[in-house]
Specification:
There is one protein chain. This protein is mainly alpha-helical. It contains twelve helices and four strands. The radius of gyration is 32 Å and the shape is elongated. It starts with a helix and ends in a 12-residue tail after the last helix. The relative contact order is 0.07.
């Protein structure tokens, strides 16, 4: 009887130990599986070390998942979705232009996207001749499309109330340069920024210099565009060309420059103006 009881206890103990071992092993497998989903690399960019991820305004978490997976930026879609849910990413989706790196884990990627820490871009424009050209040039660099930009550039009431300008002179607001912008900039925010840059550029000293040569701020901008179009390669020659044009204006003479005639003709493919034009 004693031996039977001991044998029974030994059997029960073995079962208990086995269950504990199975639980430990199962728990370990489960834990390692979750560890992989959180911390192991899930971003693969092929031969590239990094890429720019663009998240449009109004995107949802599922939109971001779709962008990442369809562009081949993440290997395992379900692991990203699972962790994104755990970290409540759906309530922290921020539009913008993000730098993602090959080898990033889901955890690092989601933390980056939740932070909203996007990378600014360098927006450049020069030698702009028409509003259409400006709208196309800007729309190729930020999220705002050319139609939304053109709509504001042609809106008389909007331009008058906000910038004290009109569709005829609005181009003078845009001083050619390289600016730092966030990709998800709207058309109105872009114009607001340019208005601030315009105000910062036109210091009292520069306004006084413009008055000395008898030109308005808009006329100075137009003249600068003509000089840029006339001589875009040799910066040291620009002051000489500008001086010649200013002297002509003071004498009431026509500028007789190729860029002014090209602008009037409306054909910007012309490289040299001949008598036939």
């Amino acid at each position: 009887m004693v031996k039977k009881k001991k044998g029974k206890k030994s059997f029960v103990l073995k079962i208990v130990v086995s269950l504990i071992l199975v639980s430990i092993i199962g728990g370990g497998i489960w834990a390692y599986d979750k560890y992989k989903m959180i911390y192991l690399p899930n971003v693969f960019l092929g031969k590239n070390i990094k890429e720019h991820l663009y998240i449009p305004s109004g995107s949802t978490m599922q939109d971001v998942v779709h962008i990442l997976y369809e562009n081949g930026y993440i290997i395992n879609k379900s692991s990203f979705e699972w962790l994104a849910e755990q970290k409540n990413y759906k309530n922290h989706v921020y539009p913008g232009r993000y730098v993602i790196k090959s080898g990033m884990s889901n955890n690092k990627l989601i933390d980056l996207l939740r932070s909203g820490e996007q990378e600014p871009l360098k927006l450049t424009f020069n030698s702009i001749r028409t509003k259409e050209q400006l709208a196309i040039r800007i729309a190729s660099q930020i999220e705002a499309d050319s139609l939304s930009i053109m709509k504001l550039l042609l809106d008389k009431n909007f331009l008058a109330n906000k910038y004290h300008m009109n569709p005829e002179n609005i181009l003078s607001l845009f001083i050619p340069n390289t600016y730092e912008f966030y990709w998800n900039t709207s058309a109105e925010k872009f114009l607001d920024r340019m208005a601030n840059e315009y105000k910062a550029f036109w210091t009292e000293e520069r306004k006084a210099k413009a008055r000395q040569i008898g030109l308005s701020q808009s006329e100075v901008t137009i003249l600068a565009s003509i000089v840029q179009a006339e001589q875009s390669r040799h910066n040291d020659e620009k002051p000489i060309i500008a001086g010649l044009y200013i002297n002509r204006l003071k004498k009431g003479m026509r500028l007789e420059s190729d860029p002014t005639l090209v602008y009037a003709h409306g054909d910007f493919s012309i490289n040299r103006v001949l008598n036939i034009h």
